[in-house]
Structure formats: C-alpha cells, structure tokens
Design goal:
Layout: H1 6-12, H2 39-42, H3 57-75, H4 78-94, H5 101-136, H6 150-174
C-alpha cells in the first residue's frame, strides 16, 4: 500500500534491527501518524471548548441598529411621513372653508409638522437608548469579561451621537424654534 513500518523496511533490505516491532507505523515519507487522542479519553472538561467567550454579535448588531435609527431620525421615516400626511388630511377636513388663513395654516401644516417632529424624536430617543444599552452592557456581564470590541464601542457612540442630534432637532422642530410656521396676518 505504500506504507511500511520501520522494521519491515529494515527486514526487506536484509538488515537485522534487533528491536521489537513498534506499534506505530511510519509511512514512506517518514512522518509520524496522527496520535491525537479522543476527547472522551481525556476526562471531563478537556473537550477543547473550555469556556467559550461571547462573540459580541448581538452587541454589534444592536450598535448598528442604533446608528440606523439615528439616521432615520434625521432623514425621516415612512411612519413619520404617513402620520404627517394623515394629520394634514385631518386638518383639511376639520378646518372650515371660511376659517382665517392663520387657522388654516396651523391646522393643515402646523400639526403635520409637529407630528413629523414627534416621530423623528421617537426614533432618535430609541437610537439613544439602544446605543447607551450597548455601551453599558459590559458592566452588567460576567465579571472579568468586560472586554468589548473597539468597533462595537465606536458604532454605539455614533448611534448615541446621532440620537442626541436627532432628539435635539426634533425638539427644536416641535417647538417651532427651528423652521417654524410662517407668520400670517
């Protein structure tokens, strides 16, 4: 078959070795066979999977979600757009045709603007909370295992920052400090 034991090689050449047959075979290249033992022979706890370290996949995913929510709070969401359009429709239906211009602007556009700001603020607040939870998670984990991958911390801080900026802009937008309704009168 192409593999011979050391003794067979010596016997095949006519040389006497004077040693007993070795139980381990050596192939023609001279490398030793695999002598690893089965994990069940070594006893409990020696299966090679000592204590598995957490991979941080969940924390990384949560950090990315935090950033995504922060971006949605700044750019707007489908939910916020639909809620604002609904508020515009409600304002048009509830405003009498003979109402003044200021009343019409407030009911049709002002409430929709504030609804859009409210949804942006909710997304920003969620991004802020998720980011803070990711950053605080190692403090509540297994003692001695507070190591968190640097990229997870960076992404979580980005989510927190976007959440703070989004929340600030939402509050300014809701209170009409930023881009308030035009004065009619």
């Amino acid at each position: 078959m192409g593999t011979k034991t050391v003794d067979e090689t010596a016997a095949g050449t006519g040389a006497e070795t004077g040693t007993e047959h070795d139980e381990t075979a050596v192939d023609a290249t001279g490398t030793e066979p695999d002598t690893t033992t089965d994990a069940s022979q070594d006893g409990p706890g020696a299966s090679g999977t000592e204590e598995e370290t957490p991979s941080g996949v969940g924390q990384g995913a949560a950090a990315v979600v935090s950033v995504a929510l922060g971006l949605v709070s700044l750019t707007g969401s489908w939910v916020g757009t639909v809620a604002a359009a609904r508020e515009t429709l409600v304002g048009q239906l509830e405003t009498a045709a003979d109402a003044g211009v200021a009343t019409q602007v407030k009911e049709v556009y002002g409430d929709a603007w504030q609804t859009s700001a409210l949804w942006g603020g909710l997304f920003a607040l969620t991004a802020l909370i998720v980011g803070v939870v990711v950053l605080a998670r190692p403090a509540f984990g297994t003692p001695g295992r507070t190591v968190q991958a640097p990229w997870i911390k960076s992404v979580a801080w980005a989510g927190v920052s976007l959440g703070v900026v989004g929340l600030l802009l939402a509050v300014l937008k809701y209170t009409d400090v930023l881009l308030g309704l035009p004065a009619t009168g």
